[in-house]
Amino acid sequence: MIKIFCVEGTKGAGKTTTIQNLRNFFETKKLSVVVKAPFYDVRPELKKLTGFENTYPASLDPIAAPLCNDLLIKQITSDINNKKADEILIFDRGWLTGLTTLLGSVLPAEQKQKEMKRWESLMLPTIFLYTKPDNTLSVRKNELSFNVGLKDKKMVEHDFILRYNLIQKYKNCVLSQVETFPLADDKEIQQKILQNKLLEKVFYR
Questions:
Q1: Burial (Cβ within 10 Å: 0-12, 13-18, ≥19) of residue 190
Q2: Largest CA distance in the chain
Q3: Engineered SS bond to 4: which of 46, 77, 89, 118, CB 3.0-4.6 Å?
Q4: How does DSSP classify residue 150?
């Protein structure tokens, strides 16, 4: 069984629901599960140091961008180092979102290359969930904003392409890559199909 992995994906692909379903399953087996969301966990320190409340706008500021990147790497590294032996550690977004944020930042190209090496050392086994940009816009149209880096259709499409291409580049760490919409007409059936497919990769191996 894999005891540390991350769930990555495009907006609206079902990351939160999938993580909760996996967590519920593990807990029914009396297993200890910890879910970490580094992009949320760094926000208090990010705001204290830079005044920015979210990582995306911080990545577009020349002073905040390197601090933001460093905070994220240190947060994930700390979470990994503090994992207990008997725990299952699930990251709600990790290296893929980190690389996406880094590559879209205002850092100079040379510095981006250097920081990519740091992120590459954090490439954990990964479940990648994706849905096409039109589906993202359909199910999350009222939740799009510049603050999360997905203001409009153009930004949604760019984010999709960047994440999808990065996953193909680093596919050696991918446990499963699933297009989650549509899987089935019935939402509950869809979620069950997905859960079973992912458990084959994580729990039953």
A1: middle
A2: 48
A3: 89
A4: -
pLDDT tens, position by position, 136-175 = 888 777 677 777 677 788 888 999 999 999 999 999 999 9
Torsion on CA atoms 69, 47, 157, 15, rounded to nearest 10: 90
Q: Are strands 32-36 and 87-92 parallel, antiparallel or unpaired?
A: parallel
- Distance CA(7)–CA(92), nearest Å, equals 5
In angstroms, the Cα distances linking 57 to 32, 39, 110, 186 are: 35, 13, 21, 37
All structural domains of the chain with their residue ranges? 4-202
pLDDT of residue 167: 96
CATH fold label, 4-202:
Rossmann fold (3.40.50)
Contact 140, 159 (CB under 8 A): no
CB 103 within 8 A of CB 62: no
Inter-residue contact 99 to 167 (CB < 8 Å): no
> pLDDT tens, 81-123?
999 999 999 999 999 999 999 999 999 999 999 999 999 999 9
Q: Cα separation of 87 and 74, whole Å?
A: 20
Q: How confident is the model at residue 62 (pLDDT cuts 50, 70, 90)?
A: very high
User: Which amino acid type is present at position 2?
Assistant: I
Give strand pairing partners of 128.
8, 177
